[in-house]
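FAQ: What does a multi-protein file look like?

Like this. Sequence, then tokens, then the next protein.
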Amino acid sequence: MTAPNDPDAGVRLAAEYLQLVAEGRTDDAAALLARPADIRELVLAGAGFTTLSRRTGRTLPTAMRAQAGGRQTRLGALRDAHRRDVDGLRTWLQAAAQELVTVTGLAEAARARLGTPSAG
């Protein structure tokens, strides 16, 4: 991560991770998750994944949205359980990254099946 004081750094990292996964560059994506070195950087990165996951989750059909909400709650508990543990937070970051990939895939599948929701 470049600047720990940059509130958008986590979202950019999450978007970059998602792009690498979409391109099939899983080793590069894993290396990206290994970059944050301290608790603050890990939490900032995880917040970016959470932001994108929740934003994408709000576009899901109702039942899928409810399931995504439950997974987000469990991820929050995992984060809280490892609040001061770098290795535990790294596990949480990896789980948050996987959740973003899952929610993005579900949203794409729902759009393909149901069409893009109309705006307004």
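And here is the next protein:
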Amino acid sequence: MEQNITNYIVDPETGEITGEVYDGDKLSIRRYSQEEYVHTHIVNFNKDKSFVKIYDDIVPLLEKYLTPAEFRLAISLSPHVSYEDCIIRRTNNRNSSILNMKDLAEIHEYRYDYLKKLMLSLKKKGVIGKHETGSILQGYTGQCGTVYTVNPYIYFRGADLNKPTYSFYENSGWRELLARN
């Protein structure tokens, strides 16, 4: 199906036609301030790299309330935080395999018993949560047993948090700690 040209894009300085607008095209206007921004910033820096959101005030709080070993483990979990549900997975992809303590011990080179002790301590301090299948995973029907999540008030990946994860951590105390700082 051939589209009709409805307008032309013209360079304001040269008068040269630089593009065409077709039926159904969406246009956005780049203002001078946007042009200036593009010239003074590297837009989409490291766009191909994934990242996890960690709140500015949380690191000093973690250092204050966690032991150095707990702090190290808490930070080392950040690459495993999946989108929207905060489940600890092999990668940040929400379709990636869910990690258990044995997997985490191997990946991060901890003795299993030591990792188990640290994870229990982080759970007591509200940094992580331990769930049985179905309590956090909406619509999940497979067998995976125990699922670990991280507290979205500490770190999070994405922009939208699922409600079961929010409900689980809503009264963890970390929201209040952040609000005080």
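Q: Is there any per-entry metadata?
A: Some entries carry free-text notes. For the entry above: The mean pLDDT is 85.
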